[in-house]
Design brief:
Radius of gyration: 17 Å
Bound molecules: adenosine-5'-triphosphate, magnesium ion
Largest sheet: 4 strands, antiparallel
Order of helices and strands: EHEEHEEEHEEEE
Shape: globular
Number of strands: 10
Helix content: 10-25%
Structural class: alpha+beta
Strand order of the largest sheet: 3-1-9-10
């Protein structure tokens, strides 16, 4: 069998954002309520690709190279919890059109490379903690504005100490501010 890599496309926050959001998660979640994601691992998945071959990866990258999405501002104003996957997350009550378009374009590109991807509606969320069994109390907070000017391809290695992520490619989005 040929070699494969576990990959996903994501929005990657800066180190400062990762640090700040991780601290918020620490404040919001009661002690022992779950397992906080390490700051350096915080991200927002756009599209999970799974195990794909070197050839599929090359063709995916080259197709993404010729795609130009639009930059956008994401307002994260929700701290939520999903009971079944047991995650607490930071999310947006409004998904910007640019983000919907980006995810849709990436889904089409992935399918054109014979990569099976999720067909469920996209729900933008940044997982803050896992194994959170009980819904945390409602939190009031100032919405977080995240200017998203690029997106990345990430390699995920599942180890006994959790997933190790490595950003392997990055693409810019068109920033039309000031035009
Ligand atoms: P672990 O699986 O060890 O808990 P992880 O979920 O962080 O770690 P991956 O399973 O490699 O690492 O997933 C990478 C990213 O893709 C994560 O944001 C994860 O939530 C998301 N993801 C994983 N599997 C799927 C899937 N089947 N559909 C949608 N998103 C997924
Ligand atoms: Mg996983």
């Amino acid at each position: 069998m040929s070699e494969t890599q576990r990959l996903f496309l994501a929005l990657w926050p800066s180190e400062e954002q990762q640090q700040a959001w991780s601290e918020l998660a620490g404040e919001w979640l009661p002690e022992g309520a779950g397992r906080l994601i390490k700051p350096a691992n915080l991200h927002m998945t756009l599209l999970f690709l799974g195990d794909i071959s070197v050839d599929q990866c090359a063709s995916l990258k080259s197709k993404i190279d010729s795609y130009r999405g639009r930059a956008f501002e994401l307002v994260m104003d929700r701290f939520g919890h999903w009971r079944r996957p047991q995650v607490a997350w930071l999310g947006a009550s409004e998904t910007p059109q640019e983000l919907q378009d980006l995810v849709h374009a990436l889904q089409l590109i992935a399918r054109s490379c014979d990569i099976q991807v999720d067909t469920r509606p996209y729900r933008a969320h940044l997982t803050l903690a896992r194994k959170v069994r009980k819904a945390p109390a409602r939190i009031r907070f100032e919405p977080i504005n995240w200017f998203v000017g690029d997106f990345v391809l990430v390699k995920s290695e599942l180890t006994s100490e959790g997933a190790l992520y490595e950003v392997v490619s990055k693409w810019s989005l068109n920033d039309s501010r000031g035009e």
